[in-house]
Amino acid sequence: MAKESDDSLQIVEQILPFFQPDYTLTINDNTDMGIKRDVPIVLNSISYEDNYQGDFETRRALIYTLDFTAKFYLYGPVTSQAVIKTVQVDQYTNLPDTAPKREQRYTVSPTPANASSGDDFGFNETTSFFEDAKVFDPVTGTDK
């Protein structure tokens, strides 16, 4: 906000040179993990509005609107969960003439099964191959 038109124009003129086409800030993105990230701020557009109606004694409003885009990351809440004990991956074929068919299931779990995250443990790996024409539905977890 400025009292005079010339004052507001000078403020805008001092801001614009920093955006060539963007201005990059280094922020502490995730202080818990010690992550610093460069975030570009892009100046998309500038618009000018002069709201003046009536005689010379009526208040005049000069509005400069600067539209920015900040390219940053959003993180969900930090939560704690139990250690993942089993991972299962289903691999599919996706040929143009046929529906996707499950071809292989790969499962990994720790040995022993009661191992914790700090233990020195091995893994059980299981691979299953499917040669039938059934289609696995990941929503229901069953074959069709």
Descriptive labels:
single chain, 144 residues, mainly beta, 3-stranded antiparallel β-sheet, 1 helix, 8% helix, 46% strand
Can you walk through the features of this model?
With 144 residues, the chain is mainly β. It folds into 2 domains: 5-70, no CATH class; 87-143, no CATH class. 8% of the residues lie in helices and 46% in strands. The chain has 1 helix and 8 strands. It has one helix spanning 5-15, and strands at 22-30, 35-51, 61-70, 87-93, 101-111, 122-129, 136-137, 142-143. The strands form 3 sheets. A 3-stranded antiparallel sheet has the order 1-2-3. A 3-stranded antiparallel sheet has the order 4-5-6, with no helix packed on it. The protein has a two-stranded antiparallel sheet with strand order 7-8. The N and C termini lie far apart (66 Å). The mean pLDDT is 81.
When the domains are counted, the total is: 2
How would you characterize the largest beta sheet? 3 strands, antiparallel
Distance between the termini: 66 Å
Number of helices: 1
Structural class: mainly beta
Strand content: over 45%
The average pLDDT is 81
Which bin fits the share of residues in helices? under 10%
Taking strands numbered 1, 2, ... along the chain, how are they ordered across the largest sheet? Answer: 1-2-3
